[in-house]
Structures are given as structure tokens and as C-alpha cells.
Amino acid sequence: MQISGKNNHYFLLHSYLCISSIFYYHNLSIFFDAGLKRCTALLCDILALFLERKIILKKPIGTFRWILTQSRGYLKYTFILMLIGGLLSILGVYRAIASKKLVDTAILGSKPQTTTLLILLAILIIAEICLSSTNSILSARCRSKLSASIQKRIYDHILNCQWMELSGYHSSSLSTRLCNDADAVANAVTNTMPHLFTLIVLLASSFTALLYLEPAVALAAIIISPVCIFFSKLYGSKLKGVYKDSQEADALCRSFLQESVQNILILKTFCLERENYAGLSRLQDKKISLAVKKGYINTLSNTVIRLGSWSTFFIIFCWGANNLSGGVAAFGTLTALLQLISGIQAPFYGLASSVPELVASVGSAERLMELTSIPKEVEDNTDMESCCPIPDNSLLDIEFRNVCFSYKKNESLLKNLSFTVKAGEIVGLIGASGEGKTTIVRLLLALVTPDKGHIFIKYKGRKYQVSPSSRRFISYVPQGNTLFSGTVKSNLLHGNLTASDWDIHEAAVSSCSADFIEQLKDKYETVIGEKGSGLSEGQAQRLAIARAFLRKKPILVLDEATSSLNTETEAKILRSIRDLKHKPTCIIITHRPSALALCNRIFKLEKGMLYEIYSDNSMPETVEERYASSCI
Ligand SMILES: Nc1ncnc2c1ncn2[C@@H]1O[C@H](COP(=O)(O)OP(=O)(O)OP(=O)(O)O)[C@@H](O)[C@H]1O
Ligand SMILES: [Mg+2]
């Protein structure tokens, strides 16, 4: 069938309107369904983020500089992403102008020119698709790489910073910062910043094109969009209270569930299942009612933005109806206007969501900066490592001289402690709970530093002040369960990563662990859970002792290491300690009299003072006598 001239125009116009309607329907649907809803939701999220986390942007410029420093090596990709985004914006505007020409040419009936323009349009569309795919791939790649790099850098700092300062942070807060905040900063550099630039280019180019085509529509668009956002934000501010309550209800619900799951044993043994379940229902009811309220306010806030957006389109349709019927304007101009208008609206809504996102990422960066500002441990023993490399199997003395320590100002915990532990000596440390026994170990490990006085390790008559790197001479069995999730073997290897299977077995035998390990389903390859779950407390303690035995260092410290063992097993392990081939200088902290039988000397910590209550010369003969005399 031949298409006549006029029909030809209508056919082309119809085809074009279909294509362009796909375009602007596509824009609109993104605009409404994703853009608007996300935009408002995001604004509220950011708002709540500020309220809940009390983000105060103290030094945005300094923080911004920090972000850039953290992103060195990735900034060139940010630049490329900006270029691609800018190019995409300009291509979009050019497509609108090309489509105007296409419709106008088609209506005039110029077939060759129409074909050329159709080809141009197809090329533009393909170029846009290719560029935006490249953009997404590059952005996702850079984001994950940068996030990992920031995470590693902060984690490295955490590993090497002062333990005391770090211990003030909640573990979940640290992991949130390492994961979420690192992600947010990476997202700002590889996504938000290029996106903001893209939006600005899109706004400028669309506005210029609109101004050229129809100044009145351009002015209407540039006024209506920001005004609507302003009113929507004004109304959205009412969300503050509801949002805060909603976040609190959510946090309560989450912590309730977390604690309940952690203490499920207590709930079961105290028959609290029903009450606990009812408690969860009450918290959920509150959360649901707040979510519904939030939904209503959100919908109203969105309606303002929808109203603004539709009114701009309505203005264009009025303009079209008026001018087309009067023959003043061309169809092509109408189609171009319909496409360009979203080039003005989208940047405003995009900016409304991207700017708070950027601000939130500055908040995230500040939280990370807080961690990096924790001072690193001071390495003042280069002397020890370079000038006097102490062999691993050497015998070392420990000396505390006039050591004073307090965790809080004016609350002195340890007062002027002075004592020496000779190489190869086994010393018992006793004292009531909370007196500061573990703190003495922390001082020896240089995890905390004395307010006054000095702590030395002595090798061949030379004294070396303890420091982080003198930890390499210490094997430590900490108080409490300190196992990692993983296999039995991987836990033992923490003591010595190069230990052979024979070494592992030897350490297991010395710590009375070998028997129970052999009975486990996969023996040394048996997987144990978080904090040694799947093992008894006593078994976990024995593995911790085996781990320390594997380390074979000149100093061995056991902090309540045998508290969960029966007397017989404990006696066996203590004998193993005495018989260790490398004869470590040993400090045993204990409340148990049986452990004291092994000691050459016993110190008692009382009211911040240390008393030597027994030495080899004055040591009572029997364990019972020692126990009775030490008044534990
Ligand atoms: N990180 C810390 N920050 C502030 N105070 C602390 C910290 N760790 C311990 N303390 C306080 O220091 C005191 C001594 O604690 P430490 O753990 O050394 O006692 P302990 O003698 O080992 O007790 P236990 O026998 O119960 O293990 C306690 O009063 C404790 O509350
Ligand atoms: Mg302790």
C-alpha cells in the first residue's frame, strides 16, 4: 500500500509520538515511581539519620578533603564518570532537538532528510545506551573497590591503634562504621559526585534548549519545580517527630530480638517464652502504627511534588493545544518540549536527593575520621628489635618499678607497684575480684600505659621498657572465652601460624585437650561456633591454653585460665606448665588454691597495693595451708 503525502505525515507523526511517548513515559515513570518516592524517602532517611545518629557536620571542608585523600587513585575514575554523565546529559538534549527536527521534516514530507534524521536518532539512542552501561559498570566497580580500600585502611588503623581508646567503642558501632560508613563514603565519590555533576549539566543544557524553543515554558519549569520541592520539604519536616519515633521503635524491636536470641537459654530455663513473645508483639504494634502514620505523611508530601510535575506538563499541553490549533507552533517543538521538561524537573528532584546523600556521606566520613584520630600505639622499642634481637627461647625477667595506674582520673587503681619476676620463675597473683589483676597483665602487654613508673623486661642484664612489640615475647591465656569461630586447628594455629601437626598435637596433649579433640566428629577439623559454642567452658579453656603453649614464648601469662576445670585436669595442666621445655617466666592469676601449689612466689593485690605473701623460702608445705594463709 502506498502512503500518500498527508498520510505519510500523519504516519510519521504517529510513529514519532509513539517513540517520544515511550521516552517521556519512561522518564515519567522513573520520575514518579523511583525518583519521587525515593527522593522523599531518602530525604526522610537522611533527616532521621541526622536525628538518630546526631550527625553534626563539624568541619565539612576538612572532611571533604579527607574523603578526597582516602579516594586518591580513584579520583581519575570520578572524573571519567563525570565526563560520561555530562556527555549523556548533552546527548539527551541533542536527542530532543533532533526529534523535533525529525517530526518537523516528516510533516514537510522530505523523505531523505527524514531518513537521515531517523538514523541520527538511532545512533544517539545507541550511544546513550552504551555510555550509560559503561557508566554503571565503571561506577559499580570503582565503588566496591574504593569501599574495600577505605575499609582496609581503617581496619589497619584499628588493629594498630591504642587498645584503651578503642575499647570505649561498642563492637557493633565499629562494625557499622567499617561496613556502612565506608560504603557511604565510596558511594559519594563514585556515584553521588558524578551524578550531581551530570544533573547540573542536564539542567543547564535542557534549560538553554527550552529557553531557545519556548522561553515561557522554560521559566515556568524552572520556577515550579523548586517551589514544589520547597513546599514538599516544608511538609516533610512534620515527619521529623514521627520518623524519630519510628526509628526508635525499630531500634527497640531489633535490640529486643537480638538480646532475646542471644539469651534464648535464659528465656527457656526461666519459662519466659510467652512473656517474651508478648513483649515482641507490643513493640511490633507500636512500630506498625508509626509506619502507617509515616506512610500517610509521605503520601501527602509526594502529592505536592506530583502536583508540581503534572502542572508543568499541563502548561505544555495548554501551550500545545493553543499554538498548534492556531498554527503558530510546530508538532516538533511540542515533542521537544515534552522531552526537555523532564531534563529540568529530574535534576531538581535529583539534587534534592543527592545533596542530602552527599551531606550524609560527610557524616559517615566524620565517623570514620573519629576512628582514624585514635592515636596509634607508640613504637619506642626499635632499640629492642634492631640493636638487641632477643632470641625466642631466651629467659626474660619482668620488672614493675613504682607503677601507678588509673582508668579514670583521680580514681587510682594501682598504687606504686614494684616487683620483679625472675626468668623461669612461676609467680601466682591473687586478689579479690576487681582489684586490678587483669590490669597488671594489660600493663605488661602494653595495652595500657602506666600513669607513673616503668615496666621492663630484662635480658642478660639489660632492661627494655615494654611496648607493643614486646608482645612478641609473651604467650597469653586471657580471662573468659576468646575462641574464634572456625575449626579447632585454625584456633590453635592463632598461637603459631607455622606450627606443624605434631606441634599442635603436642600442645593439645600438654593442655589435656587431645583426648576430647580425638572424640570430636572431625577431630582437629571440627568446626566450632561463635565464642567456642559447641564446646564446654572447660574444653574452650583447654584450647586457649593449647594455643598459648603453641606460641612457646619466654613469658607465659594465664589469667584465670583454669577456672572451669576440675582439680585433676587443672593439676595435669599445671604440671605441664612446670615441665615446659622452654621454661617461660610465668604469671598465673587465679582464685584457686590448687594452682598456687606450682608457684615459686605468691603476690596478693589488695586496695591497689601488691604484697608478696609467700616466697619459696617461706612457702607453706601443703596447698591447703597456702590457700588458708592467702585468704582468697
Ligand atoms: N576498660 C576499662 N575502663 C574502665 N575501667 C575498667 C576497665 N577495665 C577494668 N576496669 C575497672 O578496673 C578495675 C580492675 O579491673 P580488672 O579487670 O583488672 O580486675 P580483676 O582483678 O582482674 O578482676 P577479676 O578477678 O574479676 O577478673 C575494676 O574495678 C574495673 O571496673
Ligand atoms: Mg581479671
TrEMBL record:
From the Swiss-Prot or TrEMBL record, state where the protein is found: Cell membrane
InterPro entries, alphabetized: AAA+_ATPase, ABC1_TM_dom, ABC1_TM_sf, ABC_transporter-like_ATP-bd, P-loop_NTPase, Type_1_exporter
Q: What are the record keywords, sorted?
A: ATP-binding, Membrane, Nucleotide-binding, Transmembrane, Transmembrane helix
Q: What is its main location?
A: membrane
What Pfam family is a match for this entry? ABC_tran
Task: List where the protein spans the membrane.
Answer: 7-25, 74-97, 117-138, 196-213, 219-236
Where the record annotates domain ABC transmembrane type-1, the positions are 79-360
Q: Which GO terms describe its cellular component?
A: plasma membrane
Task: Note the topology in the membrane.
Answer: Multi-pass membrane protein
- What is the name of the protein in this document? ABC transporter ATP-binding protein
* Species this chain originates from: Clostridium thermosuccinogenes
